[in-house]
Amino acid sequence: MGYYNAESLPHLKQQVDAGDFDAMLHVGDFAYDMDTDEGRIGDEFLRQMEQVAAYVPYMVTPGNHDAKYNFSHYKNRFTMPRSSDNMIYSWNIGRAHIISFSTEFYYFLQYGFTQIRSQYEWLERDLQEASKQENREQRPWIISLGHRPMYCSNTDQDDCTYVRDRVRKGLLGFYGLEELFHKYGVDLELWAHEHSYERLWPIYDRTVYNGSEEEPYVNPKVPVHVVTGASGCSEKHDGFGPAMPWSAVRCSDYSYSRVTVYNTTHLYMDLYSVDQNATVDKFWLIKERNSLPLTRIISMAEAWKQKREIL
Residue 234 needs a FRET pair 20 to 30 A away by CA distance; which of 48, 210, 262, 271 works? Predict the structure, then answer.
């Protein structure tokens, strides 16, 4: 979300005032940009955000627009839990364990390569702890927040449109995160970067693994990815190319997503369109934690039949 064209902010404020939110997750790219005009745009943007950040936890994740001066504005303007620089951290809320990490380590290599390895090792330790039986019983939902998605179907030729996306596969085959997140049973992966919304079928290694043909989000054995980056900024929207087999729903409206963890087995997510002043997408993610392993892989033909697109 940017200082200019922050289309979603009045609606977010209204919902915060109504007590609808317990926390707000901003998955990268602040103000466009916080360093602009010697930081004055960052100052003005955060004054805008006080309308919501003064009332609910405002949890942040670094994005590519925050990279100037080695992310110094991002690192020094926020204070996230158990983190010295806000680049990597995790926290618990209700039945969910939420992990925020930096996809930007894979792209701004001028700031160092070892941070990729350090983050990977930190993520594995955190996921090991979160996956212990006693912790998973208390907080069964593991949700990740990263700026640049592993998958997308936009036309801007970002890395997520390629087969070997860096965040997904790593650099030179090392420290890719898709396998790690799958190994430890991450349930929901939330992304931004693309100025649009795209909900994917449950996916791993470019293959769709729906829970079943009739109920794709009931007991999927791989993570669910949602790209939700259209809250409004000076760059406006990113266009879509042809839908991919894993594309379930796509939307170009100015919008924001809402996640509700109802209990240990049911999570609800929807998309609120600012343009239409209405909810335009919604789904339930249901995990019966003792369900049997997946025994079938949905075919590409079936995936194409099931896809739906909002124009």
Answer: 271
